[in-house]
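#onboarding

Welcome to the new folks! Below is a worked example of what a typical request in this channel looks like: someone posts a single protein sequence, and someone else replies with the predicted structure as tokens. Don't worry about understanding the tokens yet, we'll cover that in week two.

Example request:
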Amino acid sequence: MFFSRMIFRSFSRQFKRRLLIAVTVCLSATVSVAMLGVVFDVGDKLNAELSTYGSNITVQPKADAVVNDLYNMGGDANSNASGTSESDPTTFLKESDAPKIKTIFWAFNITNFAPELNIHADVNCASESVDSSSCKASGVPIVGTWFAKTLHMDSGESTVAGMNGMRSWWKLDGSWPKDDSAQGLIGTTLASKLGVTKGDTVTLYKTTADGSRNKQRITITGIYDSGDSDNNAMYIPSSTAQVLANLPDSIDKIEVKALTTPDNDLARKASKNPNALTQDEWETWYCTAYPSSIAYQIEEVIPGSVAKQVRQVAALQGDVLQKTQAVMVLMTVLSLVAAAIAVANLMAASIGERGSELALLKAIGATDGAVSRLMLAETAVISLVGAIVGALLGSGVAQIVGHVVFGSGITMRPMVFVLVFVLLTLTVLIASFSSIRSILGLKPAEVLHGR
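Example response:
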């Protein structure tokens, strides 16, 4: 009974210090849970955020890829329509093979894709509001593509693919065209040059390989601003472009947007020569969503193709992801260090104030171990309460970060809470070490006599 009353009075006198310890641990747990929660979930969200600015994998016919590599004609994967070359492609892939991209091992990581047929045509206006005699342009880049095409897979699933999702940063005045229609989009630069507005109709003329002169009337449903030289082009449905160019089921490029894992040494080795990998390395690489792994699997299902990652996009994703994770881990470490220092100082002050009580406990028979366990138990209970409250607050902070930065919530994995509680336990134990040493050094006779 005497022992219990002593503990109660001690707890009352030292309430502020215990509260400060709980608050310190709570703040550290809040920061740790929030930061590590985001770290464990930031990869996919950051890649998804960055991938809104274009594809990170492009697929071409092998012959074109060889020529591009030979003459170093890589360029920006997202600006093919505005390239300097005015010649039409001579090698093609089959548009009917494009949906096979969604059958690879990493199909669920393929968030969008769009085939393209890049040609050039002459444009004449055919609108009552426009003087057709002055509204002409030759060699205009025309991109035949999908806008929001619904694909029905053999597995019974359906997916939507096309430029509607690939060009989400475009500023569009109007509406997206319908697939398999005589509609199209026109860039702001070309629209200004021709004096065309949305709702107008233009006529495209194209001389095909056999010498015939085809024409196609296109209704402009919208005017887009891409922010680059792509504003000189027109986008129309692929089926319409194929009829215009007399190239049925033909495309010369596929843009692919995929959620990927940043490259490491294994991925870089595989991108140079997959055959140089050992069996274990091959399995690890093939079963990890590296850009090179996804590109390799696309080549397996698209006959005659070469798939390459857009180095600038892939490098940006990996660099930003690593720096973001490093900052958040650093904040976690700093919060734990601050908590350790604060808990150590508070425990030292607490032991200094309670020196006579602890000495009396030792004088009446309590061992050093018993007194140390008493102090550790008190600190553990206080820290546990602070950690639980902090974990709840940290989960909320993580959701706020997710919605503000990425526009979606953060998935809190159980491993985050386990890791944080382990780290806090080690932090409190380390912080308590110096205080325990001072308890072991207490001499009851000297303390009780005020020496």
